[in-house]
């Protein structure tokens, strides 16, 4: 009987380990194409297009695991370095402006590895 309970315990631990996502299923291509509607606003300012906030909310919904959030963070940092004239203040406030609450700051200095859900 003790042997059976040890096997059950091992199987439960294995099931928990397998069920915990360790890799993201979101690609940087998906992040870039989703956020493309925001580039003009983030470089030129002006009125915020509703399509940009739809994109922000969509990306937030896609990234529901810690690995997904970290991947999105890395993708945004990488893409942001390629965009000339990006207004860092607009980038930092975009989630809040669109009604999305994040527990971490958005910016080039964000440590993506520290993000967790």
UniProtKB/TrEMBL annotation:
Name of the featured protein: Non-specific lipid-transfer protein
Transmembrane portions of the chain: none
UniProt xrefs under CDD domains: nsLTP1 (cd01960)
Signal peptide: 1-24
Keywords: Lipid-binding, Signal, Transport
PANTHER family: NON-SPECIFIC LIPID-TRANSFER PROTEIN 2-RELATED
GO biological process: lipid transport
InterPro entries hit by this protein: Bifun_inhib/LTP/seed_sf (IPR036312), Bifunc_inhib/LTP/seed_store (IPR016140), Plant_nsLTP (IPR000528)
Keyword Cytoplasm: no
The protein's role, per its UniProt record: Plant non-specific lipid-transfer proteins transfer phospholipids as well as galactolipids across membranes. May play a role in wax or cutin deposition in the cell walls of expanding epidermal cells and certain secretory tissues.
Annotated Pfam families: Tryp_alpha_amyl (PF00234)
GO molecular function: lipid binding
Native species: Raphanus sativus
Family assignment from sequence similarity: Belongs to the plant LTP family.
Residue ranges occupied by any Bifunctional inhibitor/plant lipid transfer protein/seed storage helical domain in the UniProt entry: 28-112
